Amino acid sequence: MKQYISENEGRFFDELFSLLRIPSISAKPDYRPYMLKCAVRLTELLKEAGADEASVYNTDGNPVVFGQKIIDPSAQTVLVYGHYDVQPPEPLEKWRTAPFEPVILDDPQTGEKAIYCRGANDDKGQLFMHIKAFEYLVRTGQLRHNVKFIFEGEEEIGSPSLPKWVRENKDMLSANVILVSDTTMISDKVPSINCGMRGLAYLEVTVTGPNKDLHSGHYGGAVANPINVLCDMISSLIDKDGRVTVPGFYDKVVELSDEDRAQLSRAPFDMEEYKSFLDINEVKGEKGYTTMERTGIRPCLDVCGIWGGYTGEGAKTVLPSTAHAKISMRLVPNQKSDEITELFTRHFLSIAPPYVKVSVKPCEGGNGFLIPITSRAYQAASRAMGEVYGIEPVPSRGGGSIAVLADMQEILGIDPLLMGFGLERDTIHSPNESYLLRQFFAGMESIALFYKYYAIEE
Q: Which residues contact 230 (CB under 8 A, 6 or more apart)?
């Protein structure tokens, strides 16, 4: 496929950039027209690539794109999943370039060329690789499998509408494996394939004190400050050993055997490089586990946002009426998002002191999943990536969440396979999101080879 990429590189960038320029931000309701625009553009690209059909389907939320090419009803079928929605670009002042105007620039540290734009990696750039690998196989007569595509517009807000749509269209989506590129590799030195991802329980908490903001001189020291109370409550949620203190939080967590931990430890990890990349002096996490284990096989709790009172420039001596925080809990397989949400809510309300009122609002969530590394699909992916990178990829456990994949696994009865080609340097969800061209091209090559090695016959 190298030659095909070389011959069509300019067209590939033009087509990808047409997607990247669309600000398909699912978190902002006012951007809904852009969601439809992006979905329609994807149907055009799928048809141009060789799909027999590609259409936009309405859901209770943002539209879903479904396309397919059926070679032989009796052949193996690959269902490609991706999402076209992106994170909000703020803070805008941190971007090197306009967040929705894609450009190819040199990486400031390495000098390598990369695409800079919101969605360059997550996930427009990665789903686009699948469209182009499919196009190559169709146009060269090498496609031997049925291929179906499902691209959604709500992954960044927890895919609230997709599970229902998948249930309603279960027969149309029937396949043998769900192929996904929406994850990162452990490093650019050794490729890896995610064999599992964590789940998520995400909530917003509010602490309310007096019925209005108060003068801090007249009332300070006599009335509880909701920000102070919220900070105390949050600090009690994690103990000195880095363990979450919510009762029952660890009840269903499966402890990995020494053998399994040794297998996962095959993945390369340079602590000094890790700390240097993040510009930190030391790491911190649950006692008794390595950094990679903390982000792969262990659950955690983090405050993702906290606010209240006056935060503008200058001074305003105010004792606020309310304080708020957004709390994220990453979960490992067997932990259920709804159960953890209930446990957290019960605990957080129970520790509220009598001088404030506390509420908890669930925002989004989903369960984690695991896949066997002995599966035919995993072995095909491993062989394909090994051929492209010149080294056998290692299995890894992803620290992030693609909540809907666990739902799809359950509804459709098939496993997801995560062939992600992003790197930590791509800073997804942050300003200056980018995607190295060599990873972009290597992804297309690996995906095309996956189809070659994913044999039709058992």
A: 205, 207, 306, 308, 323, 324, 325
